[in-house]
Design brief:
Strand content of chain A: 15-25%
Oligomer: homodimer
Number of helices of chain A: 15
Radius of gyration of chain A: 22 Å
Strand order of the largest sheet of chain A: 2-10-9-8-5-3-4
Distance between the termini of chain A: 14 Å
Order of helices and strands of chain A: HHEHHEHEHEHEEEHEHEEHHHHEEHEEH
């Protein structure tokens, strides 16, 4: 270590973080998973229960109730799908889209593209409204397309994890969708409990999320919620759902359409993950949704302020930023791969690379759940200072 | 407590088990999940890693290697699907069955029925060879049907979790399947590492399992293995797979067709569950497959011997029993629901009820993974003695 390095106050902090508090664990500042709390970690190791044990069914009911609060919905059918976030997406399309149905999707990143491609694979007639990666979908343009195309489902990505864009105008889109009797679908993977979300007020009929983002839980479950209007539409399907694992009717026999309804076996729920999700949701609700969103916003602001001197500039305009995940354009002549390696191996800090057309051009820095605080920003800044000093 | 109860040596043991060693946890002697070891529990709470972290990708490679050993296969494409056991079944049919394909399945319980129904939902031409619930599929009859029907896939349930039947004659079925150029599919959910299994020797091309049975891991993952012949057949598909979550081609870009191959993002793997599975597999391999199977067999024998005096008789003939899960016909005038409630609430012991036509007629008692020992049998006997004393 050089004399300069030893004298740099950032370095002291950096060495400290690397060798003590983070010695055995990564600080996960990528697009998720993020770190989980000790409470969530302990609940993950709770002694197992059988999937039909009354105590476990109580835990499932608790989970449903807490998810309703998190989504800000009264939807009876709200529960976690037994798979990761993409499983929630697939569950929604498998149940609500039939071959030949019209599907309209806003595409401004990986996850809008993924929705579009899956709808095509399932034999839907698909149209899209596109925007640059890093920009939101133009709401007027989308609503105009809704009126002319009259889709069965209108889908948008509320929190685009590939670009860090938060889609606004959700209520307007919902109203336009309902005007043509369409269902409104939202990808809420990185927005749930990290950004304002009003599923019922917005008129969202079909929403899915993931556990490893702002909920602060390991990956493995995909919370979903379905409006009564959606359930009604499900009953009008002309064909059976071409899936067993994702068949809503079969799953409901197990997770129950409402509390107190008799259950029967469909699949063996991932018990430990449900325990962890329940604890994570409890932490969310103890903090309060508004406070939690404000904390995510404050952390994102601090991050942008602290990274600006290094030459990192936000990709997304201020009013459209997804606070839990900020995408930065990189400094000039910056070896982003070398810098990510340095952060990971010398500082135990993970940041996210760009995806698709943004690969090599941006970093995605997540400050989610328990990581949405100034300490995370400080650790990252320490690591960057160290990198720039050595390179 | 009555004087008689105090004097009954079983009662002492029973009270002990309820109030101390099992005070905060159930003894899970149903069809799975079973209890997990302290090692597996601790690994579940290991600090998270990102899903693209080189350390996590190493863990995934380790998992694949250990699964190959457990399945007794050299199949390169062997990995855990991010969903519970039924997700593995759906993954296999989604990738290897196209509408109009011929599908032949042995049906002698819930899980054969499930395979049959899913193949129908997917638009296959389905035929079945049936057997009574509690009996194996007649191998000659199945092979004859293979020759006449010439299916694309022949499916059997190697370990029927609904009845406790272990299907023998796997090598003969595999040979017949290959003679007509069919793929051989096996449901190995409750047989993997609890019963002899030789995927390569048997000629099984497509196999799936679950983590919450003989592997002694929580539910949440479905290990699968695919032969080279299956991979070749996959490449000859006429249509794209109508799924994103289960699309083999997409998943392989992430989990990797072989070690050292570059990875790209498909979904966020359930990190904590992979850690737990790796530890569970390590325990399996330390014990050795043969020893482990013998332990399951010895526990099942002891269980049958100890329950016989109560009037419980095995449903399945000795040579066809699935040792990890024994199905018992119940004593005369036995209130099976009351007895299960008593075991659960007074002794913290879960046993499994019958499914489908066997509901109310049998119990399914699982002695799986760490529960396959005489202590489990003793606890259950204690609980039953107590029940019969009080009723």
């Amino acid at each position: 270590m050089s004399f300069d390095e030893k004298m740099n106050p950032y370095m002291v902090s950096s060495m400290h973080s690397t060798t003590t508090s983070l010695s055995s664990e990564r600080l996960l500042l990528g697009p998720g998973p993020c770190n989980i709390s000790d409470r969530v970690s302990a609940s993950l190791s709770r002694p197992l229960l059988g999937h039909l044990d009354p105590l476990f069914l109580d835990a499932m009911d608790t989970c449903k109730e807490r998810l309703r609060d998190a989504f800000q919905t009264k939807n009876e059918v709200t529960f976690p799908i037994s798979g990761t976030g993409s499983a929630g997406m697939e569950f929604l399309l498998a149940n609500f889209l039939e071959p030949g149905d019209r599907f309209l999707v806003g595409v401004n990143g990986v996850f809008g593209t993924r929705l579009m491609n899956l709808a095509k694979k399932m034999g839907a007639q698909v149209e899209s409204v596109e925007a640059d990666w890093g920009s939101p979908i133009d709401v007027s343009q989308l609503c105009e397309k809704i009126r002319s195309f009259k889709p069965k489902i209108v889908a948008v990505v509320n929190g685009e994890t590939s670009t860090g864009v938060y889609q606004r105008g959700m209520h307007t889109i919902g109203t336009s969708a309902h005007d043509v009797d369409a269902l409104f679908l939202a990808d809420c993977v990185t927005s749930l409990t990290g950004m304002p979300m009003e599923i019922d007020t917005w008129g969202v009929d079909l929403a899915f999320s993931g556990t490893q983002k702002c909920l602060g839980c390991p990956p493995g479950l995909s919370p979903i919620t379905l409006s009564d209007r959606a359930i009604q539409r499900f009953k009008e399907r002309s064909q059976s759902v071409p899936s067993f694992y994702f068949d809503l009717e079969e799953i409901l026999k197990y997770v129950g359409p409402q509390e107190g309804t008799p259950r029967s076996y469909h699949h063996t729920a991932p018990i430990s993950m449900i325990f962890a999700l329940n604890e994570a949701l409890q932490e969310v609700l103890e903090e309060g949704l508004e406070t939690r969103c404000q904390r995510h916003a404050a952390a994102a602001s601090l991050l942008i302020e602290k990274l600006e001197p290094f030459g990192f500039t936000p990709l997304v305009a201020a009013e459209h930023r997804l606070n839990p995940l900020t995408t930065f354009q990189l400094p000039d002549e910056f070896d982003e791969q070398a810098a990510r390696r340095h952060l990971l191996y010398s500082h135990q800090i993970e940041v996210g690379a760009g995806l698709g057309p943004l690969a090599g051009k941006v970093w995605r820095i997540g400050l989610m759940a328990g990581n949405a605080n100034s300490q995370s920003v400080d650790h990252l800044v320490d690591g960057l200072v160290d990198y720039f000093e050595k390179n």
